[in-house]
Design brief:
The protein is an alpha+beta fold. The protein is built from eight helices and 20 strands. It has helices at 12-23, 38-41, 60-78, 95-105, 108-111, 143-155, 258-269, 315-332, and strands at 2-8, 28-31, 45-46, 49-50, 55-56, 83-85, 88-91, 132-135, 139-141, 160-161, 170-172, 177-179, 182-189, 209-217, 226-228, 232-237, 240-244, 277-286, 295-298, 305-309. Helix 1 (12-23) packs across helix 8 and helix 3 crosses helix 8 (315-332). Bound molecules: flavin-adenine dinucleotide. The site of flavin-adenine dinucleotide (FAD) has 42 residues, from helix 1, helix 2, strand 14, strand 18 and helix 8.
Length: 348
């Protein structure tokens, strides 16, 4: 079999690159072994503001300008709904935080998103004595449903192979890369934390961080917006909410833990006062990089091997943009964004 490209890994990165290939009439096959869960468990939130400090997310506007049409196109292609828009309400802890909110909202880069009318409405079960700041232009991508549907779409086209990519079975000749019975001109590795097993890219400085989430059912919590306090409470509909997430730099397993659950419950109880039941808990490892920028680019010794990784805590917003940039680099020779290009880690 001859294809233009092989993709290894079908999380948000692999999916975004697959769409880019398909949009440009390139043939490809995907290898996916379900060894990582980050994209499947993610909260799926997109939000242009870092709500701890009220500063803009790196390249937020450019990323959103690309991401929102990107997900709309997938909704049309797969005939599904994945993008749920709602505002985010940031609970203020003090008057000082309110003042910081107003100062930040004055900045032209943030003013489109930050509402300067403080939310004073009392919502049943939400403890917010100092009010809340409202962020516009936020929402959630149902990443699990999107990826599940996209996989079925590719299965029906014989473009999805459920197996672990075996690096030892890959060889190269002067023209192509050979993997078992497949001949291709490019292999794009999108393995998330799985990158650490990849002999071609494992030396890149990933600083992965495990995250856990719980899903709760709270029949008296009448909110249709995302609440941000010490954790996110993300509305899923029918009084179900995702609550998260933890950050753990030591534990590298995908197992859910009692400690993770307890941490989330303690934080949740500090600002939610209605009864709820926990219906689910999940965990994944975010492929975060030392300098908090993506890992995009070609292998320094073999330009047929490339990487799309390091999406960190914000894969939903970043994936569409970096996939487009890597595609343009491989097939049109366009330069990569130096902040994402893995050559920033090459030693002189
Ligand atoms: C708890 C939690 C909450 C999060 N919340 C948000 C959020 O609200 N908003 C947001 O934008 N981001 C969020 N993130 C971050 C987001 O999930 C990541 O940025 C994103 O999922 C990374 O996507 P990826 O495709 O690079 O990696 P992954 O999702 O890890 O995908 C890599 C894929 O490669 C496969 N794979 C690996 N090695 C191989 C191999 N050798 N052969 C075959 N297949 C292989 C894996 O099975 C996996 O499917 C969250 C993450 C976590 C853990």
């Amino acid at each position: 079999m001859k294809v233009d490209c092989v993709i290894v890994g079908f999380g948000l990165a692999g999916m975004a690159f697959a769409k880019e290939l398909e949009d440009n009439n390139k043939t490809f096959i995907v290898f996916e072994d379900t060894s990582q869960t980050s994209s499947n468990v993610a909260g799926g939130v997109y939000n242009p503001i870092i709500l701890k400090r009220f500063t803009p997310v790196w390249q937020a506007k450019d990323q959103l300008d690309m991401a929102l049409p990107f997900y709309r196109e997938i909704e049309e292609k797969l005939n599904g709904i994945y993008d749920y828009t709602f505002p985010t309400h940031r609970i203020f802890k003090s008057i000082e935080e309110q003042n910081n909110w107003f100062s930040a909202a004055d900045r032209s880069i943030l003013s489109d998103y930050m509402d300067t009318n403080i939310v004073r409405t009392k919502y049943n079960g939400v403890l917010s004595p100092e009010g809340m700041g409202r962020v516009k232009g936020t929402g959630r991508i149902d990443t699990k449903k999107l990826l599940d549907d996209y996989k079925i779409y590719l299965e029906n086209r014989n473009q999805m192979e459920y197996s672990t990519f075996d690096y030892d079975a890959m060889t190269t000749n002067e023209v192509n890369v050979i993997y078992k019975s497949i001949e291709t001109s490019n292999v794009v590795f999108c393995e998330g934390y799985g990158m650490l097993k990849n002999p071609y890219f494992r030396d890149l400085p990933m600083n992965e961080v495990k995250g856990e989430l719980i899903t709760i059912h709270a029949p008296d919590l009448e909110v249709d917006f995302l609440i941000k306090s010490s954790v996110f409470v993300i509305p899923l509909g029918n009084y179900y909410f995702k609550v998260g997430a933890t950050f753990n730099w030591k534990d590298k397993t995908l197992l859910t833990t009692d400690a993770g659950k307890l941490e989330l419950l303690n934080k949740l109880d500090s600002f939610i006062s209605v009864p709820y039941t926990v219906v689910k808990q999940s965990a994944g490892i975010r492929p975060t990089v030392k300098d908090r920028r993506p890992l995009v680019g070609l292998h320094s010794d073999d330009c047929r091997l490339s990487i799309l990784n390091g999406l960190g805590t914000r894969g939903v917003m970043i994936a569409p943009k970096v996939a487009k940039e890597l595609f343009a680099h491989i097939y049109n020779g366009s330069p990569l964004d130096p902040e994402s290009d893995i050559s920033r880690f090459l030693k002189d």
